[in-house]
Design goal:
Elements: H1 16-19, H2 32-39, H3 49-52, H4 60-68, H5 72-80, H6 86-92, H7 114-126, E1 143-147, H8 151-162, E2 166-170, H9 179-182, H10 191-203, E3 207-209, H11 220-226, E4 229-232, E5 238-239, E6 252-254, H12 255-263, E7 282-286, H13 290-301, E8 306-310, H14 322-331, E9 334-336, E10 339-346, E11 352-365, E12 371-375, E13 381-384, E14 387-390, E15 394-395, H15 399-402, E16 429-431, H16 434-437, H17 442-462
Parallel strand pairs: 1-2, 1-4, 2-3, 4-16, 6-14, 7-8, 7-14, 8-9
Antiparallel strand pairs: 5-15, 10-11, 11-12, 11-13
Length: 465
C-alpha cells in the first residue's frame, strides 16, 4: 500500500487583497489530478464513520473510490443516489464537524477533504455534454405539493420524484433556492451553481411555481384538496433583533434584508442593477455565525473602509465555520470579541453614528453548552459606525401556521413534528428544515427533507398516518 500523505491536497483560492474587492468565488476548485490525489488518501474503511456523520447518508467511500480511479462519471452516479445537490453541499456544508470530523484518517493525520471532492465531481459533471440522470421509478399517480424551494424542499422534491410521485414546488420569491439564493453570498455559493442544481431537478420532472405565496394565494388546506401530501419547508425568514435602545435608528438592518438586497436583487452589480443598498464606510456586524461572516465580507466588497464584527463570546464559541472565520480575518474584518452592543446612538437626522458596547467575560455554561457571557462592570466604549447589520438569528415566518388550522407550533413559532418522520400534527402535512429547527445549516435541512420523503412515500403507498 502506498504511503498516505498526512496533509490534505490544498485548494487554490483568490488572494485576500484581490477578492475583498470582488464577488467572484473564493476557492478555485480541484483539478482532476488534485482530486485523484486527494481521493487516494481515503482508507476505504469497512465501517465508514464518515457516512454516519453525513445528514443525507452519502456513500462517501463509494464515490471517493471512483474519483481515485478517475471514474468521475461513476462517482457522480454514486453521489446522486442520496444527494441531488452535491455542488451546493461541497461548498457550504460544515464538513469539519460532520463527515470530515468523523473521518478515521483524521485521528492521526488531516482528514480526507470530502467536501472538496464532492464539489469537484459536481463541477466536473457541469462541464460534460450530458449529466447523470437519476433513476425514476414508475409513476404512482400520487401528487405532492412542496411549499418552499429551499434546501429541505428541493431535497424532498428530488427524492419523491425518484420514487415515482408527481411533485410541484411553490416558491414565494421570484427565484428558487431559498437561503441558497438570497442568504449565501455569490463569493461563497455562486447563483449559477444553485440554478444548475435546480435545473437538474426540473429535468427530472419536478414542476416549479414561482411568486406563489402559500398562505396568501392558497392555503395548506386548499393544497390538501388537490394534492395527496404536502411538505412545508418555508425556512426561517423572520429576522431577530436584540431590542436595545436606538435599534430603530436609520442605517440598522437585519442580515436578511442586507444579504437579500445584495444576493437576490444583485445590488453588488450596481449600477447595472439599481437595487437600493447602503454602502456603508464604517460597518458593524453583530453576531458570530456564518451569516455574520457573510454580511461582514459582503460589506467589504461593497466598499466599506472598516468592518467590525461584534460578538459577545470568544472565538472558541463562534458557531461560524473555521474556514469562514479565517477568510473574514484574511480579508480585513476586525473582530471585537467578548463584546456586546447595549445602545445605538443616532445623529440629528436619525442615522446611526455610534454603537455603545460592553466588554464581556465568560461565566458558567448555559443551555447551549457554551459558557455564558457576563458583562464587565463599567467597561462601556463606543465604536463609530454609519451602518449596522444584525445577524443574531431568525425565526420562522408565521404565515403558514396562522393560516393552517390544526398545525401545532412551539413557543418559538417552529412547527411541531415527529423528528423520525417529519410528520406534523395535521394529517398529510410534513415539514422540515428551519421551519422546524429554527435557523440551522443547509445540510441539516436537506437531511430533514430526506427523512420526510421516506415517511411521506410510506404514507402515500399505505394511507396510514
Amino acid at each position: 500500500m502506498a504511503k498516505i500523505n498526512p496533509k490534505r491536497t490544498p485548494m487554490a483560492e483568490q488572494p485576500a487583497d484581490k477578492r475583498r474587492h470582488n464577488f467572484d468565488e473564493v476557492p478555485y476548485g480541484y483539478t482532476p489530478e488534485q482530486a485523484m490525489a486527494e481521493a487516494q488518501r481515503c482508507l476505504q474503511c469497512k465501517k465508514p464513520s464518515c457516512v454516519g456523520g453525513c445528514p443525507v447518508q452519502v456513500d462517501i467511500p463509494g464515490f471517493i473510490r471512483e474519483v481515485a480511479q478517475g471514474n468521475f462519471f461513476e462517482a457522480v452516479k454514486v453521489m446522486k443516489r442520496t444527494n441531488v445537490l452535491p455542488a451546493i453541499c461541497g461548498r457550504v456544508c460544515p464538513q469539519e464537524v460532520q463527515c470530515e470530523g468523523a473521518c478515521i484518517l483524521g485521528k492521526k493525520m488531516e482528514p480526507v477533504a470530502i467536501g472538496n471532492l464532492e464539489r469537484f465531481i459536481a463541477d466536473w459533471e457541469a462541464t460534460q455534454p450530458e449529466c447523470v440522470m437519476c433513476e425514476i421509478q414508475p409513476a404512482t399517480g400520487k401528487k405532492v405539493a412542496v411549499v418552499g424551494a429551499g434546501p429541505a424542499g428541493l431535497t424532498l422534491a428530488g427524492d419523491m420524484r425518484k420514487l415515482g410521485h408527481s411533485v410541484t414546488i411553490f416558491e414565494a420569491l421570484h427565484k428558487p433556492g431559498g437561503v441558497l439564493m438570497y442568504g449565501i453570498p455569490e463569493f461563497r455559493l455562486p447563483k449559477a451553481v444553485v440554478e444548475r442544481e435546480v435545473n437538474f431537478l426540473l429535468s427530472m420532472g419536478v414542476e416549479l411555481k414561482l411568486d406563489y405565496v402559500i398562505g396568501k394565494i392558497k392555503t395548506i388546506d386548499e393544497l390538501l384538496s388537490e394534492y395527496d401530501a404536502v411538505f412545508v419547508g418555508t425556512g426561517a425568514g423572520l429576522p431577530l433583533f436584540m431590542g436595545v435602545p436606538g435599534e430603530n435608528s436609520l442605517g440598522i438592518y437585519s442580515a436578511n434584508e442586507y444579504l437579500t438586497r445584495s444576493n437576490l436583487m444583485k445590488a453588488y452589480l450596481f449600477p447595472k442593477y439599481d437595487t437600493p443598498i447602503v454602502r456603508g464606510k464604517q460597518v458593524a456586524v453583530i453576531g458570530g455565525g456564518n451569516v455574520a461572516m457573510d454580511a461582514a465580507r459582503t460589506a467589504l466588497r461593497l466598499g466599506a473602509e472598516r468592518v467590525v464584527l461584534i460578538y459577545r463570546r470568544s472565538r472558541d464559541e463562534m458557531p461560524a465555520r473555521v474556514a469562514e472565520i479565517h477568510h473574514a480575518e484574511e480579508e480585513g474584518v476586525e473582530f471585537q470579541l467578548l463584546t456586546n452592543p447595549v445602545r445605538y446612538i443616532a445623529d440629528e437626522s436619525g442615522w446611526v453614528k455610534e454603537v455603545e458596547c460592553l466588554r464581556m467575560e465568560l461565566g458558567e455554561p448555559d443551555a447551549s453548552g457554551r459558557r455564558r457571557p457576563v458583562p464587565v462592570p463599567n467597561s462601556e466604549f463606543r465604536i463609530p459606525v454609519d451602518t449596522v447589520v444584525v445577524a443574531i438569528g431568525n425565526s420562522p415566518n408565521p404565515l403558514i401556521p396562522q393560516t393552517t388550522p390544526g398545525l401545532a407550533t412551539t413557543k418559538r413559532g417552529t412547527l411541531v413534528v415527529d423528528p423520525n418522520t417529519g410528520k406534523t400534527t395535521k394529517r398529510g402535512v410534513f415539514a422540515g428544515g428551519d421551519i422546524v429547527t429554527g435557523a440551522a445549516t443547509v445540510i441539516l435541512a436537506m437531511g430533514a427533507g430526506r427523512v420526510a420523503a421516506k415517511a411521506m412515500d410510506e404514507f402515500l403507498r399505505t394511507g396510514v398516518w
